[in-house]
Write a structure and sequence with these properties.
Helix content is 11%, strand content 51%. By secondary structure, the chain is mainly beta.
Length: 245
């Protein structure tokens, strides 16, 4: 299978803001830890109809820890307790009919109800277990130990946050500026949900320590080479209605 790399600039700001959101949430203290993969290795894990989105000749797999906060319905108060929790997702980047987006391989949280609801309604592979994510000054500490439903997997991440990125490279925009997500419906049709939020304010970051098995548990080989690492203080987010694409 041949892969074609997209040409031209990537959208650093949301090109089509969500007008009718079904959900609001916030993604805060987020780290982007990405590794290069061969496009063929990523493509084999994608459903038929989705193509791996590549940059600089590579597919990219991300280990993304952050604090989910304030989940709720627009114009109503956020859901107490259940609406805020740490999350670590493993994701990659895909494209369908010229529309790029995120494909989630796993999403680990420490709340049972959001896990069950997201799996049932959005078809997203949420997993439940112990999880912590906190920022201490210029350091970020994350821990996950999965309990259900995919067997044992874990991560321990310790990052140092650095200076602001005033002029993101095309790769840094490619890895962070994503304006929708793909998932499968119960009938195995591909769905697309638009997402909008303010432009990311990015910072450099470096790994102090990383012990991870979430990426391999998602079906990828062990990462090789140096990770590309960034941090953002976060943004409020609006999620649109998922539709069959």
């Amino acid at each position: 299978m041949s892969f074609v790399e997209r040409s031209g600039p990537f959208a650093q700001q949301c090109p089509n803001p969500v007008k009718r959101a079904i959900m609001k949430q916030g993604w805060y203290d987020i780290a982007y830890i990405h590794f290069r993969y061969e496009p063929e290795e990523v493509q084999r894990l994608l459903p038929k109809g989705l193509s791996v989105d590549i940059h600089d000749g590579s597919a990219w797999v991300g280990l993304i820890p952050f604090s989910m906060r304030g989940i709720g319905i627009p114009h109503l108060p956020s859901i107490p307790y259940l609406g805020s929790f740490p999350e670590v997702n493993v994701r990659t980047y895909v494209i369908r009919d010229g529309v790029p987006g995120v494909w989630f391989c796993s999403l680990d949280v420490n709340r049972v109800l959001p896990t069950a609801v997201a799996r049932a309604t959005y078809g997203l592979p949420y997993c439940f277990g112990a999880a912590r994510h906190e920022r201490r000054g210029n350091e970020l500490h994350t821990f996950v130990k999965r309990r259900w439903p995919r067997g044992e997997a874990s991560t321990q991440i310790h990052l140092e946050i650095g200076e602001e990125i005033n002029h993101p490279t095309p790769l840094e925009v490619f890895l962070s500026a994503r304006w929708g997500l793909y998932s499968l419906s119960r009938s195995k049709h591909i769905r697309y949900a638009p997402v909008s939020h303010p432009q990311w304010s990015l910072q450099r970051a470096k790994i102090i320590s990383l012990q991870d098995s979430l990426i391999e548990a998602a079906g990828f080989g062990r990462p090789h080479g140096d990770a590309h690492v960034m941090f953002s203080a976060g943004v409020p987010v609006r999620v649109g209605i998922p539709k069959i694409s």
